[in-house]
Amino acid sequence: SSGINAEYGSVGDYAVPFAMLPIWSHLARYLQQSYIVAIATVVLTLLWPVLWYLWTHCLNANSNFYFAITLAFVLFQSFLLSDVLFAKMRRDYALTNGIVHKKVDGVDTVVTLN
Questions:
Q1: Under a CB-based contact definition with an 8 Å cutoff, are residues 84 and 27 in contact?
Q2: This prediction's pTM
Q3: I need a labelling partner for 29 at 20 to 30 A (CA). Which of 52, 74, 85, 96 fits?
Q4: Residue 84 and residue 98: Cα distance in Å, rounded?
Q5: Cβ–Cβ contacts within 10 Å for residue 77, how many?
Q6: pLDDT digits over 62-109, tens only?
Q7: What angle, rounded to 10 degrees, do the helices at 34-53 and 63-97 form?
């Protein structure tokens, strides 16, 4: 099994969704939780090998610590997925209803999908 159903995920299980993020770069302005997900991903990525080392080599920790990191990764991956899906819905709504956006120079632009 892989991904969310695995007890102990591998790096590849978590690398695929993050590798696909550039495909959805046009949704970046509509993301709401990107900062939280980014910070959590960096922290968990740094803790993951540390807890694995403590569990397997030093025998100072048990498998529950490593499993907790896996659960946290799944939680923040779910946050990322829901944020991208909601950003897609917000963008579609904006294109359909012509929401006004401010450009950098202060000029209003109306984006509509005809």
A1: yes
A2: 0.73
A3: 74
A4: 20
A5: 20
A6: 888 888 888 888 889 889 999 999 999 998 888 887 776 666 676 666
A7: 160
